[in-house]
Amino acid sequence: MTGTVKKIVGERGFGFLTGEDGQEYFFHRSGLDSSLNFENLTPNQRVSFEVESNAKGARANHIRAA
């Protein structure tokens, strides 16, 4: 799936993406591909990612530049 970075909470190491489906997805810095640096992410940056479900709901993982 592709989408954009919606919000980054840098001091806590996580953020939210908006997918092409209009849904909002939580992500943690550990879910970034090695080609992306968490500190360099910017709002509205295009990314591609995989959606995984867990007990807390959907989560973006394997996030890389689109």
Structure description:
With 66 residues, the protein is mainly beta. The chain contains no helices and 5 strands. The protein has strands at residues 2-9, 14-19, 24-28, 46-54, 57-65. Strand 1 and strand 2 form a beta hairpin. The protein is globular, with a radius of gyration of 10 Å.
Q: Report the total helices.
A: 0
The helical percent reads under 10%
Distance, first to last CA: 10 Å
Runs with pLDDT <50, length 5+? none
Q: Quick check: average pLDDT?
A: 95
Structural class based on helices, strands and sheet pairing: mainly beta
β-strand percent reads: over 45%
Beta-strand segment tally = 5
Please tell me how large the radius of gyration is.
10 Å
Largest sheet data: 5 strands, antiparallel
| Principal-axes shape call | globular
Strand order of the largest sheet: 3-2-1-4-5
Order of helices and strands: EEEEE
